[in-house]
Write a structure and sequence with these properties.
- There is one protein chain.
- The chain is mainly beta.
- Strands 4-5-6-7 form a four-stranded antiparallel sheet, with no helix packed on it. Strands 1-2-3 form a three-stranded antiparallel sheet, with no helix packed on it.
- The chain is built from no helices and seven strands.
- The protein is globular and about 40 Å long.
């Protein structure tokens, strides 16, 4: 790693509901805001069930950590195998579906 930081997923952390789906099967269907709280995204899984996500939430099969939510997309960092017995971070998005 260029910055010397070792990246690896937290295997001991309890999985969140949306981590059982790959990101390409999830779609953002809207946002919800509450005064004094960060914007939350409404994300639909393949069955159509909607879950709220906010910065700090996890989703996707690659340990995706939500970094930012805006009106158009959820931005996250996934931790994926690097092909050499290690892990690497990869930026991903789940965009609002029109």
């Amino acid at each position: 790693m260029p910055d010397g930081r070792k990246v690896e997923p937290d295997m001991g952390r309890p999985k969140e509901y949306l981590e059982r789906f790959s990101l390409d099967t999830l779609r953002m269907v809207g946002t919800i805001s509450k005064p004094g709280e960060p914007l939350q995204a409404l994300v639909a899984d393949p069955s159509g069930a909607v879950t709220r996500v906010k910065p700090g939430s996890h989703m996707g099969k690659n340990f995706g950590l939500v970094k930012q939510v805006n009106e158009a997309k959820v931005s996250l960092i996934e931790i994926v195998p690097d092909g050499r017995d290690g892990w690497v971070e990869r930026a991903s998005n789940v965009s609002i579906s029109e």
